[in-house]
Amino acid sequence: MPEPRDTLVKLILDCREDGMSATESADHLLGAGVRPPARVIETEAERDALPVGSIVLDFFGAGCTRVHSDPLVGWVRATSALRSRMGHHQHQPYLPAIVLHESEEAGR
Hints:
By secondary structure, this protein is of the alpha+beta class. It is built from 3 helices and 5 strands, in the order H-H-E-H-E-E-E-E.
């Protein structure tokens, strides 16, 4: 199996040899599965700005989904869906966290 660097070199050379524009090269690389690094959020403000439906991997490696726009009760951890006596989720992702999916749904 080729090294990731060798694979990337081949893809870039293919773009150059075919005389692709920057946009065509980007499309070629994306089509081959190359992706930019995942976004990392480091502040509470960044975490609170994520829309409902977003998914992050928190500092401890737990997957967390935003289920409500209220920052205090709006997250549920994939490993534990425990609720408080009031019926609200009691978890916020520990920071820094990696954004796995950013939903387009408006907060509710």
